[in-house]
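Fold Annotation — chain and its backbone
Next Lines — sequence and tokenised fold

***
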Amino acid sequence: MMKKSFLQYFSGKSGYLIGFAACFATVVLALVIQTLYKLEPCPLCITQRMFFMGLGMLFLIGAFIKPATLLQKIFTGLQVLTALGGAGWAIRHWYLQANKESIIADCGVGFDYMFENFPLKKMFKLIFKGTGDCAAIDWTFLGLTLPQLALISFTLFGVYAIYLFKTK
């Protein structure tokens, strides 16, 4: 009986709200790590945070969609695609870190400068290039780098979105 009541928090509306809170807690944790260790995030780090925030917003909206509707299927698809997109950025970031010796590293200028001085197309080209500072491993937890931790998180959020869809 207790097991069933515990699992009910991780399904339905409360499950989506937990997904929303967890996504934003992930971003807050990244900001705390950044502040405590005086790290400067690269464009790939910032982009991954944007994916977490977008995924969080999709979980929040999902909490208010009626079960078993086409809209719920669409939002589940968007949640999974957003998690996959974030995982793709994390894999790219991890790849740069793993191959930093063989890649000419140049992460480029900061986001503020890009927004102020480049057209949108050029800005996205610079963000997608993301090397340089992106290849530096500034912090680890249990031997895992930040992109590896982000990849694990995106994978778990994608699986969680499918779980929520199945249980709603």
